Amino acid sequence: MCTFNKTDVLNAIMIISSEDRWPPLNGLVLIGGRSQRMGSPKEKMHWHGKEQCYYLADLLQNYCEEVYISCRAEQQAEIVGNKEVASEYKFLSDQVTDIGPLGGILTAFEFQPARAWLVVACDLPMLGPEAISYLIQRRDPIKIATAFSSPQDNLPEPLFAIWEPSSFPILQQMLAQNKLSPRQALIQQHALGVDPPDAGVLFNVNTPAEAKMIAAMRTKKDQGR
């Protein structure tokens, strides 16, 4: 069962509600990848007592007005077959297909273009409420996005970022030019980069070896509490 720090949640909500001019914030959990290197769906891995996509959706519910799970059409058909799960969560199937995470972000903006979207990839097992609160508190709606900067190369992380409505036409233009990298949009448009409070929060898992390494890191972290 997920537990959240109430103080962090309240601080983040105050940041959102204190600025009426800011676009409302939605949450988007990206699960549309095919997990080919992992060999099994990354969104179904259990890092926090439940499937990762539902853990993240529950987490974002504490900070966002609406939360959606971004997926491929066939994934949604499979999930909807489970009526209990389908009734608890909202889904957006990609309307622009086979272009990676950009398709999920564009689909979200096509659905609600006046909302900002807090986009989170499903392969971030170390992500928790502290990092969500930290990013929201530093949000700058004047920029096209607010994103954590990678400790490795200082480049913005597009799949753990708040994308503002102003980014939508830019992403559409990139698609028209067959430029499919959301990170490149952040770099070219000088999105706000934020140093993460913990470098480990951006560790992603793409292979069984990485999953084993992260499991060991999580065990060590839990034992150190």
Give a verbal description of the structure.
There is one protein chain. The chain is of the alpha/beta class. The chain has one domain (6-223): Alpha-Beta Complex (Spore Coat Polysaccharide Biosynthesis Protein SpsA, Chain A). It is built from nine helices and seven strands, in the order H-E-H-E-H-H-E-H-E-H-E-E-H-H-E-H. It has a seven-stranded mixed β-sheet with strand order 3-2-1-4-6-5-7, with helices on both faces. Helix 2 links the parallel strand 1 and strand 2 (67-71). The two termini are 18 Å apart.
What's the CATH H-level homologous superfamily?
Answer: Spore Coat Polysaccharide Biosynthesis Protein SpsA, Chain A
> At the first level of CATH, what is the class?
Alpha Beta
CATH topology: Spore Coat Polysaccharide Biosynthesis Protein SpsA, Chain A
Gyration radius (Cα, Å) is 17 Å
End-to-end separation in angstroms reads 18 Å
Q: What is the CATH architecture assignment?
A: Alpha-Beta Complex
Tell me roughly what share of residues is in helical segments.
Answer: 25-40%
Biggest sheet layout: 7 strands, mixed
Strand content: 15-25%
Q: Domains counted in the coordinates: how many? A: 1
DSSP strand tally: 7
Order of neighbouring strands in the sheet with most strands: 3-2-1-4-6-5-7
Strand-pairing-aware structural class: alpha/beta
The chain-level mean pLDDT equals 84
Give start-end ranges of low-pLDDT stretches: none
**Element order, helices and strands?**
HEHEHHEHEHEEHHEH
State the gist of this model.
The chain has 225 residues and is α/β, with parallel strands linked by helices. It has one domain (6-223): Alpha-Beta Complex (Spore Coat Polysaccharide Biosynthesis Protein SpsA, Chain A), CATH 3.90.550.10. It has helices spanning 6-17, 52-61, 73-80, 83-88, 101-111, 129-137, 167-176, 182-188, 208-223, and strands at 25-30, 67-71, 90-93, 116-121, 145-149, 156-163, 192-194.
